[in-house]
């Protein structure tokens, strides 16, 4: 069986642009109201970031739109950062290192992270999130929308997981997509996958200015990934459907982390009620900073 996951408190940041640098990750780690820290999604050798193209905008009513790709920093940058942040004291919470790339690159990244986690005598509490769901990469559609592509990634994961490994999925919109995902996990990764993070942003979204002649808010075509409140209901539906499909497939030990539009205690309660074991915050974190976690968790405790 893959390692079981548990977070206390069951609240964390999702893989966002606001979890890119060592200082940003350090602030998240120091926050008493996060049960884990997720890095921005990284590639083995980093992503070619172009500030003229890769941008975000906060929209009214708690939503956001972005045209970002992945972190400009390579995997080794994040391993070095985790080492520095947790050095000199007992590790207080897991680091979830979000990765992507080709199946071969992902396999190499998993090997490097596993070796890194085993460096210390008592080991480091490190998880892996395999992001197969970014909608903003030209000519590279999210692999989690393609059954054959998804299976090719799952087949390259180590046969026996020594660390919790999860999948970050895109928003699914019809039943066959959920069935295909769960079928792939059951066939190729029942002993490998510990959790599913649902959901990433919703691609092919556009926001136009309110001018007399409306223009895209973001550069170029303005097409990007929609996040925050606008996808909250869709994310809740994904979490709930995944939980039921996993249970029906005999994969009850695969847990679900719910992400999408949570900005307050009510949103967190809805995610937990839908079937999530923990809740990730993205847009609200980017808008309000680390203080959002105390606000959300404090309301849940009341």
From TrEMBL:
Pathway of action: Pyrimidine metabolism; UMP biosynthesis via de novo pathway
One annotated Gene Ontology cellular component of this protein: cytoplasm
Dihydroorotate dehydrogenase catalytic domain residues: 24-299
Keywords: Flavoprotein, FMN, Oxidoreductase, Pyrimidine biosynthesis
Essential cofactor(s): FMN
GO terms under biological process: 'de novo' pyrimidine nucleobase biosynthetic process; 'de novo' UMP biosynthetic process
MF terms in GO: dihydroorotate dehydrogenase activity
Protein name as annotated: Dihydroorotate oxidase
Source organism per UniProt: Sphaerosporella brunnea
